Amino acid sequence: MSSVLSDVLAKKIDELAARYPVKQAALLPVLHLVQNEKGFLSPEDEQDVAGRLGILPVKVREVVTFYTMFRRSPVGKYHIQVCTNLSCSLAGGDGLVGRLETRLGIALGGTTPDGKFTLTGVECLGACETAPCLMINFDYHGNLDAAGLDKILEGLA
Amino acid sequence: MIRLLIDGQHVEVSEGTTVLKAAERAGIELPRFCFHPAFVPEGSCRLCLVQIEGFPKLELGCSTVVREGMKVATQSPVVREARRGVLEFLLTEHPLDCPICDKAGECKLQDYASDYGLTESVFREAKEKREKRLPIGEKLLLDRERCIQCTRCVRFLAEITKTHELGLFERGVHAEIGIYEGRPVRNGYAGNLVDLCPVGAITDTDFRFKTRPWFLARGESVCPHCSRGCNIYVDHHPGFPRVPGSAKVYRIRPRVNEAVNGPWICDYGRYGFVEAQNKGRSDRPFWNRGGAMTELSWDKVRIVVGEKLKALRESGRTGRAAVAASGWLTNEDLYLVRKIFRDDLKISRLFIVDPKPGESDGMLLLPDRAPNRRGAAELGFDLAPPSLEALTRETDVLILFGPHLAAHFGLEELRTAFDKIAFKILVTSHLSGLESLADVVLASATPAEKEGSFTNADGRVQRFSATARSCPDVRPELRILQDLAREIGLRSDLYGPAAAARTVHVALVQEIPFFGARA
Amino acid sequence: MTRATKVLTELFWLEHLHRIEAYLDRGGYQALKKALTEMKPEQVQEEVKKAGLRGRGGAGFPAGVKWGFIPKDLDKPRYLCVNADEGEPGTFKDKYILSHDPHLLIEGIVLAAYAVGIHSAYVYIRGEYELIARRLEQAIAEAYAKGYLGRNILGAGFDLELVVHRGAGAYICGEETSLLESLEGKRGNPRLKPPFPALVGLFQCPTVINNVETLANVPFIIQKGAAWFVEQGLPKDGGTRLFGVSGAVAKPGLYELPAGTSLREIIYTHAGGMKDGRKLKAVIPGGMSSPILRADEIDVAMDVDSIAAAGSMLGSGAIIVIAEGTPILHVLRKVAKFYAHESCGQCTPCRLGTSWIHKIVERMAAGGGTRDDVDTLVRLAGNIKGRTLCPLGDAAAMPVAAIAQKFRAELEATLERSAVRP
């Protein structure tokens, strides 16, 4: 099967692998790298990463399916991950979820038809002092009331 | 040596022994799912928890190493409560499949649940719905609802075959076992997963829905499909209401022998055995007269064949006879072959013809696809396969044991070579096409159906008794030889009729002590 | 000796503190210099032991003692893993050290590595902290450039390679053996102990695993001495602690206070008391895994041993304040959902117990619960606690048991109201 990894990506994978005495140890950082590049991890990606790190594809899939940050299907341009844990909920986080579902017209777990937004519920993001909070791609946004949320959504092109 | 107390019993074991193994020494078996003696302890099922004085929490029996003076309780109320807890958890997501599950009757979850009185559930929630018939190998189906995540299957493929076909995906209650697409379990040892699975999560499509364990009788035998001599159980329906001697073999399973096969058998033997036992049998004697096969009674066999051999003996022209024995014959069979044909009848052309050798698989399966070539060698037989020329040149009487000649030569080639041979006797358990070339076809028993011993490649002599008698009209080669010997007029205690295989074995050992040695 | 009001966070709010120039300006890397030039590794270890530095990740194990478990003469490489997984709900303190003062952490890492003879260290940082990880990597690059990492650090002949390694969303990977598995590129399934990581750890080699805040204290201990450090806290629990307060308080945030400060003081004096004039109902004192305290139980000293004696735990020092008006069932729902979601699934009681508890609580929340469900929850928690392969089982069981015990009346009343009459 021909590789779907670009030369640049392949080189970066090798660099990551070199930081460990065992290549498999680079698997999580490598999967992040590939996912950041391609948006999600396809079976072909699993097989290519496996080949590059000298491990079996089944071992890659074990990891991809264990960790919640790895996506096996495409996500929207903006992946909104809203905290559904306790501190955020005490500050109104559950209402935030409701407002997002209404504004975007999708339920938790869904993606908007135009492919712009994916909405996911996640556990504690470690930003409880700014509850309620959410993460859009890698950016944290906290202290969100309805107005603040609306402002952020409007600002997303 | 370490001395400790288990349930009040004094036990002495070597350093580094686990509590579970030490308990075994005291005759106490700790309940377990994930533990298997062939694997590194896993510690995930939590069923083997025991109480150890001085330890604040319950500790695992499978992985806790004994210490001098330890006091272990394996049946205290706390321990029993802990076990009930684990079993109760397992039963919450386990489907009520017993009525349709192959494993019922030999299922550890059933056994332990009944041991600990778990008959009613307080689980009122919806169970997880999962795949119930996932193909994971050529003959393997995985039922994810039944799976208790003991991971024995995953670890077998990691630690024993090192092929890693199975993985553990997702996490929490959604964790599931599976293959990577396009990479099913295919390593020559897949059948062991069915035995390993403590519940009915992994089932064998050959066995699925065919019978129930409580209908099966279990006989002990030795697998004859290569020269390893793996020890096996032969599971079969014994008799009633079938015709006596028509027992069907449903499966074989490994019988643990640390010195031979450990706890495993290979798929070649596992599936080959059942296939060979039940299919393609030469199941009654035949007389082949000009292409027409007529059934022959054993009495008639004795007369017809005996006549020819008597004539041969009286004519003194034994140089015109040839015998092709086989490494599929037992030590006792071969001993009599040697005694009758070489010693008594003075036939010098004695050969061994076996299936063509195959590949070794680097584990149990050996190249020799016959169980007793070593025994033949120790009895002085030449193991080199004969040329057709050597077998058929100036031959009037040819006696063949087994269908194996058909593996080496084409039927037409054989037909031409046999053209000048006046009388051909074929003693075989299986049909191969050779029947059309023989004059008389005698139906013989498979190793499962007779008593005897094989000598494996390591020189280990393994004795076995008859287990399943699948064809009513076949006879063990030993009996065929003894009847013919008497018919020809040969005299010996070993030619019976009262001489059973064990009697012949005693005589064999007396003459050649090698066959009595125990490793 | 006077007690400093702040140790770790004294300069947190300085702009550009994360740059090495700013760190050096305020005396950064002096402790490292002192250790490498004036102290033997054993002396560094001894100082940290005397300082009574308890692990800040949740278990509270004395750091100096843990370092001492590394065998002296095993011919294998040794590793240091920095636990920056920070997954305990309510916890956000390490985030600040990592983003505001990464060089403080780096210095602590090098000191720890020197003390134990380690030449390879990994920071295991949770995947969600991606932007913080990048900042940390920048700081590490600065440290390499100026000779505080890499070969022959400060010309003292000590080598250390430091690599940042991202997790990918699994609370269990904060458990030390699960962290090791994850670092090795596998599922985060915890390992059986014994053997302990000090003997068989990363890549089967002796390994020390320390929390971010724990290591961030080490430069202070070396610079100012163990006695000074003890003075900032308590004899068996030296130094200050970073308390993260969230929930129904007026000023949620990070508060650095001496170990042993009273919980009441933290909530009312420092975090501004209850928000919007509401009444206190309950407090989770040490992250979600810690047993809940009622409003009348908050006069407890927040040090590892005192709060343990009071039936809860200090854990990660994450204080979640719950006001009257929040149904306790709501809290229970969040607890049950979290552990069911985060269970790795390896061992029976946690895999199936957290799921069962979650399903019962959801049924209760949907109006289908009955009084014996509360009994069942307590019983299931009891069948999980102490029976699992790793502490996540205890972490799942303890809060459920504590809520069911301390707020039973409220739970039963809720169920009575919603129960379907036959």
Describe what you observe in this structure.
The complex is a heterotrimer of chains A (157), B (519) and C (422). Chain A has 7 helices and 4 strands. Chain A has 157 residues and is an alpha+beta fold. Chain A has 2 domains: 7-66, Arc Repressor Mutant, subunit A (Orthogonal Bundle), CATH 1.10.10; 78-155, Glutaredoxin (3-Layer(aba) Sandwich). A 4-stranded mixed beta sheet of chain A has the order 2-1-3-4, covered by helices on one side. In chain A, 44% of the residues are buried. The longest helix of chain B is centred in the middle third of the chain and has 18 residues, at 298-315. Chain B has 14 helices and 22 strands. With 422 residues, chain C is α/β, with parallel strands linked by helices. Chain C folds into 3 domains: 20-231, Rossmann fold (3-Layer(aba) Sandwich), CATH 3.40.50; 240-323, Ubiquitin-like (UB roll) (Roll), CATH 3.10.20; 328-417, NADH-ubiquinone oxidoreductase 51kDa subunit, iron-sulphur binding domain (de novo design (two linked rop proteins)). In chain C, the strands form 2 sheets. In chain C, strands 3-4-2-1-5 form a 5-stranded mixed beta sheet. In chain C, strands 7-6-10-8-9 form a 5-stranded mixed beta sheet, with helices on one face. In chain C, helix 2 (30-38) runs parallel beside helix 6 and helix 6 (102-116) crosses helix 9 (212-224). Chain C is globular, with a radius of gyration of 22 Å. The chains are: A alpha+beta (157), B alpha+beta (519), C alpha/beta (422).
What keyword list fits this structure?
heterotrimer, B: 519 residues, alpha+beta, Alpha-Beta Plaits, 4 domains, seven-stranded mixed beta sheet, five-stranded mixed beta sheet, 22 strands, C: 422 residues, alpha/beta, Rossmann fold, Ubiquitin-like (UB roll), de novo design (two linked rop proteins), 3 domains, 17 helices, 10 strands, globular
Task: Tell me the layout of helices and strands.
The complex is a heterotrimer of chains A (157), B (519) and C (422).
Chain A: H1 7-17, H2 27-38, H3 43-53, H4 57-66, E1 78-83, H5 86-90, H6 93-104, E2 117-122, E3 134-136, E4 139-141, H7 146-155
Parallel strand pairs in A: 1-2
Antiparallel strand pairs in A: 1-3, 3-4
Helix pairs in contact in A: 1-2, 2-3, 3-4
Chain B: E1 2-6, E2 9-13, H1 19-25, E3 49-52, E4 59-60, E5 71-73, H2 77-92, H3 108-115, E6 134-137, E7 140-142, H4 152-160, E8 166-169, E9 176-179, H5 192-196, E10 202-204, E11 217-222, E12 231-236, E13 249-254, H6 267-278, E14 286-289, E15 292-295, H7 298-315, E16 321-325, H8 331-344, E17 350-352, H9 373-378, H10 388-392, E18 397-401, H11 405-408, H12 411-418, E19 423-428, E20 440-443, E21 452-455, E22 461-464, H13 477-488, H14 501-511
Parallel strand pairs in B: 1-5, 16-17, 16-18, 18-19, 19-20
Antiparallel strand pairs in B: 1-2, 3-4, 3-5, 6-7, 7-10, 8-9, 11-12, 12-13, 14-15, 14-20, 21-22
Helix pairs in contact in B: 7-13, 8-13, 8-14
Chain C: H1 20-25, H2 30-38, H3 41-50, H4 63-68, E1 79-84, H5 93-100, H6 102-116, E2 120-125, H7 130-145, E3 150-153, E4 158-166, H8 176-183, E5 207-211, H9 212-224, H10 226-231, E6 240-247, E7 253-258, H11 263-270, E8 280-284, E9 293-294, H12 304-309, E10 318-323, H13 328-342, H14 348-365, H15 371-384, H16 392-406, H17 408-418
Parallel strand pairs in C: 1-2, 1-5, 2-4, 6-10
Antiparallel strand pairs in C: 3-4, 6-7, 8-9, 8-10
